[in-house]
Amino acid sequence: MKRALVTGGSGGIGSAICRQLARQGLFVYVHANRNIDKANAVVAEIVADGGAAEAVAFDVADHELCEKVLTELSGQGVIDVVVNNAGVVRDAPMAGMDKDAWDDVLSASLDGFFNVTRPLLMPMMRQRKGRIISITSVSGVMGNRGQANYAAAKAGLHGATKSLAQELASRNITVNAVAPGIIDAGMAEGKFDDKLLKAIVPMQRAGRAEEVAALVGFLASEQAGYITSQVISINGGMA
Asked: What is the pLDDT of residues 51-74, one digit of tens each?
């Protein structure tokens, strides 16, 4: 059975991705940082639906801890699919943003990408197969007021995705990013009223976590084996 690790798997979009991958027949490691209870709840849902999963808890910004935990997980079998979904938001205009807000957001997304992905590369490379998918944001494509830190982190992931894709293409490992717009889940759930959505989203609605998960599921599948180095927006037509 193929294995997948979804960081931030206990959240709204992350849990939808975990359920999608489990339905596709993968064993899913559902990651959380502090809230292991939420990860265990997602695991229970997957198991009840006939899938296989296990909850894991660690801080993606902690380099040494990631190395330790991921080495142990790799000892149970190659992790074939890595979904870098963990992230935090600490919005503020840059003129009033403190250094901790900047550091926390970049550490979770950019350091997290490195800390989680790098230890899993050699096993993938040895088997000459794998999928690396990072969940970014429309903010990393377009920018957004009050999110200089978040936009910088996600745009950085776009560059890292394209560079790593070139390094791994000859090993049959694909590396892509999925950039959601306004998704009615997790940190954005219930924050946008219909009037605002109609003004900024051509499709005049928020997206659903399941729609993001379906795209991730496709990129993780055999059918997506020739798609790599892409930043794929899923945003209802936002420019």
From this structure: 999 999 999 999 999 999 999 999
What is the C-alpha to C-alpha distance for residues 217 and 23, in angstroms, rounded to an integer?
9
pLDDT in tens, 21-51: 999 999 999 999 988 999 999 999 999 999 9
Tokens of 143: 């920018």
Residue 53 gets which letter from DSSP? Answer: E
Model confidence, pTM: 0.95
Query: Which residues are annotated as catalytic?
Result: 150
Nearest CA among 62, 70, 71, 54 for reference residue 18: 54
For 15, list phi and psi in degrees, rounded to 5. Answer: -65, -35
Residue whose entry in the numeric block shows the structure tokens 């306004």: 182
For 3-234, CATH number? 3.40.50.720
